[in-house]
Amino acid sequence: MTASEVREKYINYFKANPRNHKEISPAPLVLENDPTTLFTSSGMQPLVPYLMGEPYPSGDKRLMDSQPSIRTVDVEEVGDNRHLTFFEMLGNWSLGDYFKKEQLPWIFEFFTKELGLPKERLWVSVFEGNNQVPKDEESAEIWKSLGIPKERIYYYGVEKNWWSRSGTPQQMPVGEIGGPDSEAFYDFGEELKLHENSPFKKEKCHPNCECGRFLEIGNSVFIQYKKIGEDKLEELPNKNVDFGGGLERIAAAVNGDPDIYKTDLFKPIIEVLDSGSGKKYDDNEVEFRVIADHLKAAVFLFANGVTPSNKQHGYVMRRLIRRFAYKMNKLGIITLKELPKLTEQVINIYKDSYLKDLENYKVHPGIGSEIDKFFSTLYRGEKYLDSQPVINAQVAFNSLATYGIPFEVSRELAKSRGQDIDITEFEKEFEKHQSLSRSTSAGVFKGGLADHSPEVIKLHTATHLLLASLRKILGDQVVQKGQNITKDRSRFDFPNSEKLTDKELKEVEDMINDTIQKSLPVNFKVMPKEEALATGAIHAFNEKYADTVKVYFVGDRIENAISCEFCGGPHVGNTSEIGRVRIKKQEKIGAGVIRIYLTLKPAN
């Protein structure tokens, strides 16, 4: 069974009666200027407001999807047979509707009947309870009724079987929701002797053991508590379910092989690496796995409009590319002739799901250019490291800052000498280096807003008018390529071959101020995405939106609005609140990209 078939079976299973879930569109992978995270890292992330009680726009209470996700917290673990930075999460949710007695039998039926996993191979875990929340005997009894014997039901504490966005109940701030969870594990069997041949062989094996015998394939979270004070939780009036299961892991269980890199989601990439390097996967597992995973993440980031840089999303992309480029170098792949074949395999794997319109000839040059840059400094960086008698945190940071050498490269060389780098000290050096840039971006809100001050909100609306004016004067090809708004200015990037003439700049500025002086209302509508698209509202073409979106428009009616965009807000209620604006300057920041700075004019 292919991974695509697993995905399709999951979607169809939860759509069918009596489950009757609504399939929702996956959230954008890249979250632009979100203060909490750069990327969507799970299917539930966009649903947090609704899990906290806000009604879902369409009124549905049963939702499900398959969500591409990126998590870099485990980047150091990539290279074993189960960890990834890019993965796909199957998810289903109950927003105050069904609960444990429905969820656990459904997911059990999906695993055993739809996918054909032997129930004898399934082990589960439940919450052991503490002084605030009782032991989850209800889930344990449900599992027993499904045929899971008590010997295969394990109880764990808050570190393993509790979920909230912040962690354990002690880590939750007042007002946050969370609850116990129940995980399902696939047992690859004692016969593989994975435990006996692991670093954990002297410990007792159990479902959460890291030996590789067990693989978590799903987690049902029962969001039923809200923190109301120090060490005090109260039950929510509406209890929710949040299920997540990694597609790659489920596919590995279906294959009966604990190595997720042997699924069809990775096999084509591995085969190109095998033929291109002349080396075998079984002899170079770590290198092959890091390249395959990080390459996949880089292609998806490119597809979502990210390019390598030293900031935020671009920095993560650069780090991933350089990590896998170093592994390519170790395999002897020091030319880039194999790269187009590798990126093509990633696109082919997802061409029927997420990368339908991505063309390989646009992808591999962008990634290849970053690899070229890295290879050009790698030799000098390694020479610098070789010249150091001790490779410590300071040396590792210097090699990163000067030559762009990833920390992992420095650490690997240090280990080969029997030395060790204090990662805490390295992170301190890195923090010192980043403190200035972080101080300017730490409070950035989603949509490019630094905060929700009156000045920022005025400039946000003025930036919508800027885009509308640019499109009037230059044409409808003008779209937003980037945006950042502070209380002092709005910075707006858009595609154009040349800077605007002085005459064009004045026309744009005058058009914005004329609209402001008309005292037009600024309204919004929440509507289905397809209906919003039909209005002609401006939106990002490389971004995946939810099924229901918010559209802001300037004017009395959306049909003849001066500005109409997909946007989360906030905005002024009337253009007259803005005052007047001026275009402070423009600059060309790259091939075919112009940046304009817009400011508020002081009141007379």
TrEMBL record:
Keywords: Aminoacyl-tRNA synthetase, ATP-binding, Ligase, Nucleotide-binding, Protein biosynthesis, RNA-binding, tRNA-binding. The keyword RNA-binding applies. It comes from the Bacteria. GO terms for molecular function: alanine-tRNA ligase activity; aminoacyl-tRNA deacylase activity; ATP binding; tRNA binding. GO terms for biological process: alanyl-tRNA aminoacylation. Its EC number is 6.1.1.7. Residues 1-604 form the Alanyl-transfer RNA synthetases family profile domain. NCBIfam families: PRK01584.1. PANTHER family: ALANINE--TRNA LIGASE, CYTOPLASMIC, ALANYL-TRNA SYNTHETASE. Belongs to the class-II aminoacyl-tRNA synthetase family. This is alanine--tRNA ligase. It comes from Candidatus Woesebacteria bacterium RIFCSPHIGHO2_02_FULL_39_13.
